[in-house]
Amino acid sequence: MGKVIHFLFCILISNSILSLAQEDCSSYNFRNNEIYATCVSLPVQNSNLHWNYHPTNGTVDVAYRHTGVSTSTWVAWALNLNGSGMLGAQALVALPNSNGSVQGYTSAVTSYGTGLQQSPLNFVVPAIRAERLNGDVLIHATLVLPGGRTSFNQVWQSGPVSNGAPGAHPLGSDNRNSLGTVDFITGQTGAGAPVGGSLLHRRNTHGVLNAVSWGILMPMGAMVARYVKVFKVANPAWFYIHIACQATAYGVGVAGWGTGLKLGSDSEGIKYTSHRNIGITLFVLGTLQVFALLLRPKPDNKYRKYWNIYHGGVGYTVITLAIINVFKGLDILDPEKKWKHAYIGVLISLGAIAVILEAFTWFIVLNRKKEEKQVNGAHGANGYGRSHEQAA
């Protein structure tokens, strides 16, 4: 039995070694039998970088290879001379054409709303070409390294092609982590901080503000109005608690909405239409609720019941849209799964509390009506008896 286990273990180890060997970038054969002295497998997006460094003239021949690319996807690899991430990157781009060929060109990224338009780089690129081979896209280029440097920050990306031009790349974790360092002499590479910098920070701030305001405080304020006011002892405290929750939610939500507008203006060409439209709708309905509060009729006014219907209907619409939009925002930001799980946990907790309070509220209301009916019935019987005796 021991020999069998040992034999199976050996097979497992052998298969693992073969698998690693097959994934080794140095085993890749180029179409024209090019040979590159150094290669590295980049940590995300199924990409490899191959190169030959020529110290005599300070140039490097590179081949960036992105595997498993569809015919409607652009890919790019870039050096960033003075920073990290996308802004300031000097990119080599491979753009698929309608006839199945791939166009290689250079593009200097000067803003977050870049369309990767063709433009010269901050260093000389004497030659560049791109090709598709067995589902892989390759960019071949010769770079004249600037200032005698050999160590740089690098970035690589991929995204959809829209109307024959590069569209905005996704914001998933792989895309945010597609950066690092490369040294063309030592062959060493390293990981970098997630792509995005201050823009990503503002996206996260926008998400947190809106999730807390529209997605958490608004439902809590509605629960206070529906369930706390049933207790006579809580009147009128429930009203002020409700107003405090909703006013805070609206104020924080306006701040989140403002950051969203700023993000939109700073991210030209990047559009999330449904998320934006729902956000605008939430802002409009939330503002209407604020003005409706100022026009609230008194409890004995004959129009008060219509105001109550309007106020409740708009309020529940806002909560529903807010929850939908929070999930849309989470899909856009694509943070670690724990954040989506945390928000789902908050919603489940609020939902469970609402179910319990709903049952308790109906219990109190029905008992109160029953008591009132008994009291009214007793008064009616006593009144009838007294009038009968007086008539007699």
From TrEMBL:
GO CC term (a single one): membrane
Primary location class: membrane
Pfam family, one: Cytochrom_B561
Cell compartments where the protein resides: Membrane
CDD domains: Cyt_b561_FRRS1_like, DOMON_CIL1_like
Residue spans crossing the bilayer: 237-258, 278-295, 307-327, 342-365
PROSITE patterns: CYTOCHROME_B561, DOMON
Protein name (database record): Cytochrome b561 and DOMON domain-containing protein
Cofactors named for this entry: heme b
Membrane topology recorded in Swiss-Prot or TrEMBL: Multi-pass membrane protein
Co-factor: note: Binds 2 heme b groups non-covalently.
Taxonomic placement: Eukaryota, Viridiplantae, Streptophyta, Embryophyta, Tracheophyta
Residue ranges of domain DOMON in the record: 45-159
Domain of life: Eukaryota
Signal peptide annotation: 1-21
UniProt binding sites for heme b: 206, 242, 275, 311
One GO MF term: metal ion binding
UniProt keyword annotation of Manganese present: no
Role summary: May act as a catecholamine-responsive trans-membrane electron transporter.
Residues covered by the Cytochrome b561 domain: 168-366
Entry keyword set: Electron transport, Iron, Membrane, Metal-binding, Signal, Transmembrane, Transmembrane helix, Transport
